[in-house]
C-alpha cells in the first residue's frame, strides 16, 4: 500500500506514481506466490494506514521503520509509533 500525505483522493499523477512504486513489490510477491492486496490511498499517513487495515479486515499490520528512535522520534514523531497508538490491530515494526 502506498500512501500520500494529507489528501483524501489520489490525483492521476499520484495514482500513477503509487502504482509504479508498487510494481517491484508486486513482482516479488507474484514470483513467490504470495496472496496480497495492494491499493494506492491518500490521507494523513498513520491514520490512513490504521483505518485502511481495519476496513479491509486485516489481522495484523507489518511496516518498516527508519529506526531513528530517541530524540528524533520525540521531536519529529514517528508514523510507526502513531500507527501502533491508533490501531486496534497488532502492529509489527521491522527495522
Automatic annotation (TrEMBL):
CDD domains named among the record's database cross-references: USP-like (cd00293)
UspA domain boundaries: 15-95
Region (Disordered): 1-21
Sequence similarity: Belongs to the universal stress protein A family.
Protein name stated in the entry: UspA domain-containing protein
Organism: Candidatus Thiodictyon syntrophicum
